[in-house]
Input
Amino acid sequence: MNNIIEQMLSQHKSVTLGDKKNSIKEVVQEIILCGLSRAGFFQTAAFYGGTALRIFHGLDRFSEDLDFSLMTPDLDYHFDRYFPILEKELNAYGFHFKAEAKVKASHSDIQSAFVKGNTREHILLCYADENLARTVVGSELIKVKFEVDTTPPPFAGFERQFRLLPIPYEINLYDMPSLFAGKLHAVICRAWKNRIKGRDLYDYVFYLSKGTPVNLKHLNARLVDSGFEGARNDLSLKEIKQILFKRFESINYIQAKSDVLPFIRNPASLNIWSKDFFQSITNNLIEQ
Output
């Protein structure tokens, strides 16, 4: 195994097969970020979402996807130009992954793609454990999804950060208040239907625990852009809190906990989740 990959894997506590699959995904995510950086992707785009929060701000849960946003809208943008670069970058470290665009039934300003590689092959590559590899179905794939928003709402703030592995590279990402605005938009607007995304609530608690202020202008732009009922460009923080209070009344917290459990190591942190808990901590929300 490549020494750099061994070093990266050693940073992850991997006990179960599921842990090891997630650790491989996290290494692949960082190689993708490095490859995109080297290809100049972050001259016009920024990293945001849960994985950005985990890698750059210490969120203590696994996050599956890589979410990107252009800094200014571009309807003619084509992310697939980077596919050969990503495949070459991964192959340089011994990972045999294929990049493929996700075909959508209707037009969307969100471009989606996956990199996919055989799970058994990469368990053997990373852990050299034949007994463990034999427990994996031969056709099973490790998948990392990434999306690019080509028509982002305005008023986001950005920052530059650096990583040292697999090699030193620079990245452009949303600043914390703008990341928080995106998460608040998800908490308010995500159509959870029968699968409540407890990960949104977990991240919400994380932001508040850090005393993160929200980029209110960007949040309002996101609410208007998604057609949220009653959205305006000048909603006050007090009005946002009232929207959140109402949202927290309608959540099935048992389902929410069930969603996030596979992604965290400390289930006891969810014991306090309830309508009263989330409404109470929302009083701590401040604006930038």
Observations:
- The CA atoms of residues 198 and 256 lie 4 Å apart.
- DSSP finds twelve helices and seven strands in the chain.
- The chain has a mean pLDDT of 95.
